[in-house]
């Protein structure tokens, strides 16, 4: 269904009911239509080969954010473009999630840090001094 070179990793469901897959084998994000099961691939730029895609999340604007363990984070606007950014400390980005208040964070498995993505610029900030996590609001606070 995804293709002969498929190596799917993370899967999420979009607001449209479609499955969205971090598809490392084809170095792409895949959308699986819920009605027809047709697959549409959104390939990473050719200069970002072997990103080793892992996980994805949607922000409140329906932008899909993803991680690749070979040192990338990226943003896909399903209606137009994909942009890929270098992770601040190279290899390692793995899990990514959107908090209830709309912020996007990722964990760097190999880099041993938590990163926060600026939703406008795509720049990632390394957060090193986690002070507390508020479970009810989903917010994180850090000390300088």
Care to describe what's here?
With 144 residues, this protein is mainly beta. The protein is built from no helices and 14 strands. Strands 1-2-3-4 form a four-stranded antiparallel sheet, with no helix packed on it. A hairpin with a 5-residue loop joins strand 1 and strand 2. The chain is globular and about 45 Å long. The mean pLDDT is 89.
Give the helix proportion (percent range).
under 10%
CATH architecture: 7 Propeller
Name of the top-level CATH class: Mainly Beta
Number of H/I helices: 0
- Alpha-beta content class: mainly beta
Q: Span between N and C termini?
A: 48 Å
Uncertain ranges: none
Portion in beta strands: over 45%
- CATH superfamily, by name, is YVTN repeat-like/Quinoprotein amine dehydrogenase
The geometry reads as globular
The CATH topology annotation reads as Methylamine Dehydrogenase, Chain H
Count of structural domains:
1
Q: What's the Cα radius of gyration?
A: 15 Å
Series of H and E elements: EEEEEEEEEEEEEE
Question: How would you concisely characterize the structure shown here?
Answer:
The chain has 144 residues and is an all-beta fold. The chain has one domain: YVTN repeat-like/Quinoprotein amine dehydrogenase (Methylamine Dehydrogenase, Chain H, 7 Propeller), CATH 2.130.10.10.
Features:
single chain; 144 residues; Methylamine Dehydrogenase, Chain H
In terms of topology, how is this protein built?
Layout: E1 8-13, E2 19-23, E3 28-32, E4 39-43, E5 53-58, E6 64-68, E7 72-76, E8 82-86, E9 93-98, E10 104-108, E11 113-117, E12 124-127, E13 130-134, E14 139-142
Antiparallel strand pairs: 1-2, 2-3, 3-4, 5-6, 6-7, 7-8, 9-10, 10-11, 11-12, 13-14
């Amino acid at each position: 269904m995804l293709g002969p070179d498929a190596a799917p990793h993370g899967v999420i469901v979009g607001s449209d009911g479609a499955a969205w897959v971090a598809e490392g084998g084809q170095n792409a994000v895949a959308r699986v239509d819920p009605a027809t099961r047709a697959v549409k691939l959104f390939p990473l730029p050719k200069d970002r080969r072997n990103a080793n895609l892992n996980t994805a999340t949607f922000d409140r604007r329906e932008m899909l954010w993803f991680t690749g363990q070979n040192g990338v984070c990226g943003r896909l606007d399903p209606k137009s473009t994909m942009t890929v950014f270098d992770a601040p400390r190279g290899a390692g980005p793995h899990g990514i999630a959107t908090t209830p208040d709309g912020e996007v964070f990722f964990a760097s498995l190999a880099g041993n840090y938590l990163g926060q993505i600026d939703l406008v610029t795509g720049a990632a900030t390394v957060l090193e001094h986690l002070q507390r996590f508020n479970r009810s609001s989903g917010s994180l606070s850090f000390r300088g």
